[in-house]
Amino acid sequence: MTVRFLGEIPPGTAEEVAERARATAARFAPFRLTFAGIGTFPPNGSPRVVYATLVEGGEAVARLAAELDDALAGTGLPREARPFLPHVTLARPRSASEARGWAEIRDRRDPSVLGRVDVREMLLKSSELRQEGARHTVIGRFPLAATGPDPGSSRRGGRAGHIPPSGPSRQDYPPGPG
Asked: Which fold, 14-148?
């Protein structure tokens, strides 16, 4: 799950970005994410993106995204203006028949749990776009090291986030988790 898409990092700031990400992660306790059912962007009609719906852990990951956005504000990176919409992309249908198949699955509204993951670290990744698809390389691993409640629990949540650059437009996203 992407908590903050950074785009191009200004020259000379990569180490500062990594250090601020490390410091942010260290202030958070590990948490669990649970995914159940699928959704699509757009939510009706032919899907362009298929995602696993987050049903547990949304508040914790939204706080992490907001705290990271705050921490990165002084590095020359612009703040993320779009709301954070936690999800895990499962597929990007490449044909009309594939899109129809995913739409049928979506329309069943099956609430079955798809999986759980205990989040214990935040990764900093580099992406290289290639003809055969993006190549993602981990360039930093930052443990969620705090004990007790997350420090951002009384702070705002849901401001920072990632909308894939090749993904859907803003109007394709459903309202954030409630």
From this structure: Cyclic Phosphodiesterase; Chain: A, (3.90.1140)
Q: Exposure pattern of 103-122 as b/e (b: 16+ CB <10 Å)?
A: beebeeeeeeebeeeebeeb
Q: Tell me how far apart the alpha carbons of residues 64 and 5 are, in angstroms, rounded to a whole number.
A: 13
Q: Is-cis flag, bond preceding 42, omega within 30?
A: yes
Element housing 50 (H / E): strand 49-56
CA 11, 15, 17, 33 torsion-angle sign: positive
Q: What is the pLDDT of residues 25-59, one digit of tens each?
A: 999 999 999 999 999 999 999 999 999 999 999 99
**Closest among 87, 70, 77 to 160, alpha carbons compared:** 70
Residue for token digits 């799950």? 1
**Average pLDDT in the 157-168 region?**
31
